[in-house]
Amino acid sequence: MITSQSSVSVRYAETDMMGVVYHGSYLPWLEIGRTTLLKEHGLPYRELEAEGFFLPVLEVGLRYLRPAKYDDTVNITTFLREKPTLRIRMEYELHRGDELLATAFTLHAFIDRTGKPVRPPVPFVTVMNRVFA
Predict the structure, then answer these.
(1) What's the CA gap between 46 and 131, in Å, rounded?
(2) CA-to-CA distance for 54 and 129, rounded, in angstroms?
């Protein structure tokens, strides 16, 4: 298993009139967690795209437990619990301090520039083999 830590400060634009974070605002935070995890392990998403590989979201699940509010600092823990093969499942926990606000998962697959499913690139496989050895 590998993990990564990120944080965001809740912007006013991400909230409703009550200062509570709008449910759709959580999805970009998951992307922050996901791209940070990849970057920390030598797999910046920008480089994957430059080489013609993309990781679209196939499925997403989010469970809201407590509301995040304007100006909160939300800590995002991203987990890659199993060695990915053709699909990659990332899991997330979002906290305000010690308080768990939400849990989530995203499922991805590699595609090429034409949208055709492909095997992960060699550098990705190499890193995953090392991390999950």
Answers:
(1) 21
(2) 20
Q: What is the reported pTM?
A: 0.94
Instruction: State how far the Cα of 63 lies from the Cα of 105, in Å rounded to an integer.
Output: 9
Domain boundaries, the chain: 2-131
104 neighbors 42 (Cβ within 8 angstroms):
no
- pLDDT recorded at residue 117: 96
Torsion of CA 27, 30, 32, 34, to 10 degrees: -140
CATH 2.40.110.10 fits 2-131, yes or no: no
Q: Nearest 5°: CA angle at 121, between 91 and 105?
A: 10
Percent of the chain with pLDDT over 90: 96
Q: For the sheet with 73-80, list strands across it.
A: 2-9, 73-80, 87-96, 99-109, 57-64
Q: How far apart are CA 113 and CA 11, in angstroms?
A: 34
∠ CA 13-6-78, nearest 5°, is: 110
Closest to 53 (Cα-Cα) out of 129, 110, 12: 110
